[in-house]
Amino acid sequence: MKLSEGGNILIISLYVDDLIFTGNDENMFEEFKKSMKKEFNMSDLGKMHYFQNEKGIYICKKKCKIC
User: Fold this and answer.
1) Secondary structure string (H, E, C) spanning the chain
2) Chain centre to alpha carbon of residue 17
3) pTM exceeds 0.70, yes or no
4) Kind of pairing between the strands at 48-53 and 18-23
5) Is there a smaller number of Cβ atoms within 10 Å at the N or the C end of the chain?
6) Interior CA angle at 22 toward 19 and 24, to 5°?
7) Cβ neighbours of residue 43 closer than 8 Å, sequence gap 6 or more
8) Do strands 18-23 and 9-15 pair parallel, antiparallel, or not at all (unpaired)?
9) Tell me: the pLDDT tens digits for 18-67?
């Protein structure tokens, strides 16, 4: 988690080889993606979407075939 002086926040979650990040500042998103791409070979699969049904909430990346 990263907090800026202006109250903006970036929250990052890592699971095996997948990164998910969220927050309230688009500039922080872009800065984070740039720094990660400099250091690691990675691709951007775009925004995630969430869905809710009677079983709960799940998230989906459009380019993945499991959703």
Assistant:
1) CEECCCCCEEEEEEECCEEEEEECCHHHHHHHHHHHHHHCCCCCCCCEEEEEECCEEEEEECCCCCC
2) 13
3) no
4) unpaired
5) N
6) 155
7) none
8) antiparallel
9) 888 989 999 999 999 999 999 999 888 888 777 767 887 777 666 555 55
